[in-house]
Amino acid sequence: MSMLDYSEITLRKYIVLDGEPWEVIDAHVFRKQQRKPVNATKLKNLITGKVTERSFHVSEKVEEAEIDSRDVKFLYQNRGEFWFCEAEDQSKRFKIDENFIGIQSKFIKKDSIVQALSFNEKVIGMKIPIKIDLKVTEAHPAVKGNTAQGGTKVVTVETGATLQVPMFIKEGEIIRINSETGEYTERVGGNNF
Predict the structure, then answer these.
(1) Domain range spanning residue 79?
(2) DSSP, res 37
(3) What pLDDT does 138 receive?
(4) Quick check: 182 and 164 in contact, CB under 8 A?
(5) How far apart are the C-alpha atoms of 49 and 171, rounded to whole Å?
(6) Final residue of a domain: which of 64, 81, 116?
(7) Do residues 7 and 59 both lie within one domain?
(8) pTM of this structure
(9) Where would I find the H helices in 53-186?
(10) Which one of 119, 120, 134, 182 is most buried, counting C-beta atoms within 10 A?
(11) Residues 156 and 182 reside in one and the same domain
């Protein structure tokens, strides 16, 4: 258990407040006029997902959270529950609620390896790659002159998720998606390259 000074509470660090783990999603040390420096942070509770702002003063110390990370395999999804197993031992299965994973849950492929984050032996979150390549399974053909919506159309990818893509994307192509925002980033490959 290590303690962090106010200035060591930086972006992507994990800390413990009131017995719960929090991720630092923003931190800025500054001085107000003749006063002592303050670290203004934005924190995300890793259990509830709640985001809050908190300032740490020079005299404050906070405990660094020990977050364990291990590889797990995504098995299937059923009625809002996502089932995973240990990467090495498929008999060790566990489920996580869809709301707990968030928007990224739409882009996890069956049998893909992701990381489970745990705090005090309890799974508190999933670390899913930010860039995910998925195959387009359903795409309506582009209609000439249909650019009133900015030249995009809705397609379905292999996980069942739908998203806006440029008009030139066709069924069977592989596209790269930002799993944090759910947005198309680029075309990677496929049958029409």
Answers:
(1) 68-127
(2) P
(3) 93
(4) no
(5) 36
(6) 64
(7) yes
(8) 0.71
(9) 98-101
(10) 134
(11) yes
